[in-house]
Amino acid sequence: MTAPTDIATTSLGTLVTSLRAGALSAQELAEWAIANHDARGEAFHAYKTWDENQIRTHATAADAAFAAGVNLGALQGIPVSIKDLVGVSGYPTFAGCPRELPAVWQTEGTVARTIRHQLGVVSGKTHTVQFAFGGLGVNPHWGPPRNPWDAKDHRSPGGSSSGAGVSLHEGSALLAIGTDTAGSVRMPATMTGNAGFRPTPGRWPTDGIVPLVKQLDTAGPLAKSVDDLVIGFGAIDPYVVDDAIVFRDRLGLADLRDFRVGICDWYFENCDPGVAESVKRALDELSKAGLRTEVVTMPHFDDVTDIFDAGGLHAGEFSAFIQDEMRDFAGDLDPAVAIRLAKADSDGAAAHINRVKAIARMARSVDAAFGGLDAIVGPTIPLTPPRMADIADPETHFTANMRLVRNTNTVSLLRLCGVTVPVGLDAESMPVGMQIVGRDGHDETALALALACERVLGTACDRLGVPPMCR
What we know:
By secondary structure, the protein is α/β, with parallel strands linked by helices. It contains 17 helices and eleven strands. An eleven-stranded mixed sheet has the order 1-3-2-4-6-5-10-11-9-7-8, sandwiched between helices.
């Protein structure tokens, strides 16, 4: 097998196969990632911590294992960026704060260990909104990464995993690990023109990850294509027993005509120009290719949004976390985070418990409403990525953030899983994502459907082109 001539346009599956065949080395991939960071890193600002010595050391270990005939998993030798909310041995954890968190948050949990045990090459720790409490990527302590789809204005890259999607376009990572509580994988994936997946909460262990809402938190992967995303998921997921390439191939056997999908009218409401239109065009293409669709109205979406707007489960749990374990950091809070914490402090324990009970009832009702549907779909987010200058004021930021998470938080609060697939550009030439929402525990079905859609629609590169900052 010959080595790929252009790593940036080569699929993750091909790169994994090339590494295993000896046609490509982990050191070559590492030097490619380092060169891209040297060329673009200052402009993109994806990383809080970048250490090329560690990258080279990890790559050398991966190559030594390959030379010994040892295959530890699909991520062996692959550059993977990890959100700075996740403990990684040898790296500090700031969680978006102006200073390091206590040593307990530097400890690797299951997700990071899985990547490291496969000798995945950690490319660095990517920026996050402070304590992951926000979807727009704002961080006054370290500055937000830049969305590569606008070379003129600094736009939101999404959050709270704000550096994750940017690291993929920078070319310093081939897979990115973020976390998602109300949309913090799916929103930055959408806003940077990548694919992203929120597993069913509880499927991926959250040990070693700074919490926001423990019962909703989950880590999740971002990648430049659904195909890459599925391989990354398969390599990390504790329930996948196959090799990740075999897992991808197995899910890829599903045909588009095998799926019955509900087009959720609620997700299409109040979208910025070009957002709903891009998703509708994609659905028209998929329907012509054989996808069985019907328009559906799901129960309780307005109700769960009202609960989220009133504080959701974030208010009580985050307030308790800051006032207990992180009280020494309360004085360093980003104003955009502090304003939401202040709203949370006005809630009592009874209000929080009542919201927990109400959401559990709604989740059961929504699960039943799926009926024979394999998934429901709609725009992942309803708005175009805003210019950072337009959301600089905490109140303006709060208003934009609440609108941003409208479509993703229904998935999170109702304990569903969701994958976002890039489908087009909006009226301002910014990426648009289509959210494929699966039932609780039906992660493989959602990913199989996303793979089938990508075979018809093409990858993000095919459909969206190259971001202006990468040309």
